[in-house]
Each structure stands twice: as structure tokens, then as C-alpha cells.
Design a protein that fits this description.
The chain has 234 residues and is of the alpha/beta class. The protein is 36% helix and 16% strand.
């Protein structure tokens, strides 16, 4: 995958509301993958992915520092960041198809996913079920092998100015510690620039006994976000 001339990055870290169907496609997952054992979504953002896994009969935990907010404060933060996404996508119609009103055609689906997430977040807070944990990489307070699958979307590789190579290496090793199968997507920043240190990072992971595999997928928010990294321990 190559960078796109004129593409712009979104800037500071944004809370996204990627629909569960997008997550399944971007991480190259099957229903069997979702139901094989506990799933970790880190960072979970405002996605309805984990809620959907539970609806299917599976077990899922979402981890994200934004879950320290109250439901009302988080709802405001999500709406603020969705507005940022709408403005960002509208400024790049060559990357993001727009409808007749000049809005990104996926905006409605993200709004629906965010509404589902917020309803489930309120349920979790009322029931204290622990489905949403205010945690952040690169350290997670879970025992080894707590999860069968961990997915991490649109944080690692997406914000190279915020996180250096050492952070990426530590975060990935932590995800592999707590989960048997780890998927990271995409492998570029939000301006479509490929992560420049990826070859060096993969060498470090190989030396640490971690097997990496590049999966070709169909990007959902941007069709050219077409690579996912699958990681397992040898």
C-alpha cells in the first residue's frame, strides 16, 4: 500500500465508532473466531463490536481510557469526535464518498454504531458488569492468555507522531501476552502513509518469539487500508 498525494491526517487521537461489520471485515474474522473464546477490543472506542459479540453469544471486553468518563460525558465526547470525522471525511471526497448533502456515506452507520455502544455502556455502568474497562496500552492488568482473540484498530500505526517504535513494540507484546491471536489494523496512518518502522518492528517481534502474518483485507472506512497484521506466539 502506498501513500496518497494530498491526503490529510486526522490529527489528534479520535474516538471512532466503527460498526461491528466493519471490524469483522477489517480484522479478517469469522463468526467462529468471535465465539471461540473471550475477545478483547483494545482500544474499543465507541464501536458496537463487543456488544455485537455478546449478542451473538460470545464474551467480549472493551478497553479504552475514555471509559473513565461518565456516560453523559462520554456521549458528548463521542459526538464531538464524530463531528471531527464528518468534517475530515467531507474535506477528502476522493478518499471518502459523499452523499448529496456533502456528508460521508458511512456517517449514518457510524452514528448507529455509536448509539448502540452508548446504550450498552450505560447498561454496563448500571450493572457494573465490567464489559468496558478504563485501560490503555501498553500495559494491561489481565493475566496471561486471558483472551482467545484481541483486536486493536486505528491506534497502533495510525498515530506515529504520538507513539514511538518502543511503544508499539511494548504494546504489541502485551497484546500477545494476554491473547492467543492478535489482529492489528491498519498498517498506515490516517493519511495513508505506511508505517515506516514496520520491518524493524517485525524483526524485533520475531526475535521475541512472535509470528507475524500480513493479511490482505478490504478496508471499510478507506478501501486502501487493506492490510491487517496477525500475531501469534510460537
Amino acid at each position: 500500500m502506498s501513500s496518497t498525494p494530498g491526503a490529510s491526517a486526522i490529527g489528534d487521537i479520535v474516538i471512532t465508532a466503527r460498526p461491528a461489520t466493519d471490524c469483522v471485515a477489517q480484522f479478517a474474522l469469522s463468526t467462529d473466531d468471535l465465539l471461540a473464546g473471550p475477545v478483547l477490543d483494545c482500544p474499543g472506542g465507541a464501536s458496537d463490536f463487543a456488544a455485537t459479540v455478546r449478542t451473538l453469544g460470545g464474551t467480549a471486553v472493551s478497553a479504552d481510557p475514555v471509559y473513565s468518563h461518565s456516560p453523559s460525558d462520554l456521549a458528548r465526547a463521542v459526538e464531538r469526535d464524530l463531528a471531527r470525522v464528518r468534517a475530515w471525511t467531507a474535506s477528502q471526497p476522493d478518499r471518502f464518498p459523499l452523499d448529496g448533502a456533502g456528508q460521508w456515506t458511512h456517517a449514518h452507520r457510524w452514528n448507529t454504531a455509536a448509539a448502540t455502544f452508548l446504550d450498552d455502556f450505560r447498561r454496563d455502568r448500571a450493572a457494573t458488569s465490567g464489559d468496558y474497562r478504563a485501560l490503555s496500552l501498553p500495559r494491561l492488568p489481565f493475566p496471561d492468555d486471558s483472551f482467545t482473540l484481541a483486536v486493536s484498530g486505528f491506534l497502533l500505526f495510525t498515530y506515529p507522531r504520538h507513539f514511538d517504535v518502543a511503544f508499539h513494540l511494548t504494546a504489541i507484546r502485551e497484546l500477545v501476552r494476554v491473547a492467543a491471536d492478535v489482529r492489528v489494523h491498519p498498517l498506515n496512518d490516517s493519511a495513508r502513509n505506511p508505517y515506516p518502522a514496520l520491518p524493524r518492528l517485525l524483526r524485533h517481534l520475531t526475535e521475541a518469539g512472535i509470528t507475524s502474518e500480513l493479511l490482505t483485507v478490504q478496508g471499510q472506512s478507506d478501501s486502501r487500508d487493506n492490510l491487517t497484521l496477525k500475531l501469534t506466539r510460537r
